[in-house]
Amino acid sequence: MKKFITIIVALLSIHSASAWSKAIHAGIAAIADANLTEQTKESIRQAFDGRNIVYYAHWMYDMADTKGYEQTKNWRSVAIAKNNKPLKSKKVASHSEDVVRRAQGLDALAAAIRAIESGTLTKEQLADNIRYIVTIVGDLHCPTHYIFVDNLPQRKMHYFYNDKKQSYVGYWENGSIAGTFPWKSNEYVHQLNRKSPEQIAQITKGSVTSWVISNAAAYREIYTLLKDGQKFNQKSYRLWQNTIYPISTEQAAVAGYRIAAILNGLFDSNVANVKIK
Amino acid sequence: MKKLFTLLLFAVLSSYCAMAWDNRGHSTIAYIAERHLTPRAKANIESYIGGRSIVYYAAWMDYNRSTPPFDITRDWHVDYWTDAHRTDENGNPQPPCSVSQIKRIVSEMGDFRTLSDSLVNVNIKFLVHLVGDMHCPVHIDFPTSRPMKVTMDKKTVKVHAMWDAHVLNSKHNGTSPMQLAEEFDIFSDEQIAKIQLGTPDDWHIENVAISEKVIQMIPKSKKITYDNYLNEAIKYAEDRITVAGYRLASILNSIFDK
Fold first, then answer.
1. How far is the C-alpha of A84 from the C-alpha of A219, rounded, in Å?
2. pLDDT score of B142 more than 90
3. Mind telling me how many Å the CA of A208 is from chain B's nearest CA?
4. DSSP character at residue A57
5. Which of A187, A235, A239 sits opposite B178 (nearest CB)?
6. A277 inside domain
7. A274 assigned to some structural domain
8. What range does the domain containing A111 cover?
């Protein structure tokens, strides 16, 4: 019985370690929502029967075990080659490692954008694709959602806090922000939605693929912030966390601005589309 | 033996100094303060802290108390119960405390534009935190209450730790600081002006009385329940947090609304 419970706990840990937490996704979506134009907001309200994107920020995860949505489990991360470019789709599909084969986030995002651009979707399909964009773009700004194929072992990096083994990837999913700030979604907006229009223009410049490439180069660095197996006590853990939260909060803000840029491009005729490549 | 004693003493001091209001408490104070900053003060402050809200830095002092050069701030979070006790039994000055640091910083910031940006930046972070700490009842350093422990939910904790987080969170765990600020910030302008009257020394005297009260309220059994302690203690915690927020706004406005 004890063994069974241990296995269940382990499985749950793996599942929950596979995404930004619900609160972070909601926070990112709230930043995006605050940067949507009125025209975009209205289109989304219609697609969502009055709801906003914050309500559905984590929906793709909630639906992952529902028939017809199982494939979304492969849309949460992106496989990255040694040169920091996204790995070609064929190489992703044929890779020997499951974690790489499942890293189809960029293709899924591109498909969702193209589907909306086509203008041929039913209301339900449109709503689904908006929700995919919100979640996937959020995930593509979580450093541990980048699967660096030339260094897969780093995904198993861990540390000990008060002698308890913890996953580094797992830490990024939630503790990287929640370990410092007890924020709800409106606080993400209040605290992080503070960039000037010029800064936002800079952040949202380029294509979706160029964002992934520049993120990849930056995100490689997070694996230098921890020595595998590093041991922390309360004091050293706090100091270490001080090196992480400025990065994670900044990425949450960037993700929010970029979601808004994509959605505004798709739904507001006065805003240019964000290109995929 | 001497080594063991030193280690034990260090352990006691470390656990004593390691806490303050938790992030939820400090952030709530900062949110309340932010709601009462004048537009000019708010703009001036944010220009020195990279465009961020003061709330972002509400617990910054706690997060950096072990990092040089800020390890010198380690003892700034608490205060002594009377001026007479700001020296030890041999007449040596105790480490600088929250009230003396607040007074020093306010004085130093009199003409903040003549100071370096980095000094103003760090002084804002200090004030945002220390005004909160000086209103936390257990941040008055009574030697009698310092080692006192209580039992809550079958766990034994120091009174200090109970007050830093457990009291507030016993009712408000899961509520965001922004929401707490909205719930607590319900006073009229006249009431707020009255709360803001006085100096940090006056506020300290008031807090000493409240500290004594919340210590006396602890049941003799030291077993804390909602009925015998928390329901009443929560009111004090909410009051102290709200009052601290208004007074922080008052201090920051006095410095930066010019």
1. 10
2. no
3. 27
4. T
5. A187
6. no
7. no
8. 2-267
Cβ separation A234–B56 shorter than 8 A: no
Encode pLDDT of A169-203 as tens digits.
Answer: 999 999 999 999 999 999 999 999 999 999 999 99
Would the pLDDT of A225 be above 60?
A: yes
The CATH code of the domain at B25-256 is 1.10.575.10
Convert the pLDDT of each residue in A28-69 to its tens digit: 999 999 999 999 999 999 999 999 999 999 999 999 999 999
Tokens (6 digits) for A125: 């399909």
Q: 């701030």: which residue's tokens? A: B73
Mutate which: A22, A181, A199, vs B, most B CBs within 10 A:
A181
| CB nearest to A194's CB, from B24, B51, B66 | B51
A18 in helix, strand or coil? Answer: coil
Q: What is the count of structural domains for chain A? A: 1
Q: Which residues of A touch B177 (CB under 8 A)?
A: 182, 187
Reported as a pLDDT band with limits 50, 70 and 90, residue B20 is low
- The residue type of A85 is K
- Residue at A276 is within a domain: no
Q: Is A187–B51 a contact, with Cβ atoms under 8 angstroms apart?
A: no
What CATH number is associated with residue A69? Answer: 1.10.575.10
Total-model pTM: 0.87
Residues from chain B that touch A175, judged by Cβ atoms under 8 A, are none
CB contact under 8 A, B53 and A241: no
Q: Report the SS3 class of residue A122.
A: coil
> Do residues A31 and A188 touch, judged by C-beta distance below 8 A?
yes
Mean pLDDT of all residues belonging to chain B: 88
Contact: A180, B27; criterion CB under 8 Å = no
Chain B residue with the nearest C-alpha to that of A241? B63
For residue B56, the distance in angstroms to the closest alpha carbon of chain A comes to 7
* A117 vs B: CB within 8 A: no
Cβ contacts of A194 on chain B, cutoff 8 Å: 51-53
- Interface predicted TM-score (ipTM) of this complex, two decimals: 0.82
Cα angle for residues A149, A152, A156 (degrees, 5° grid): 155
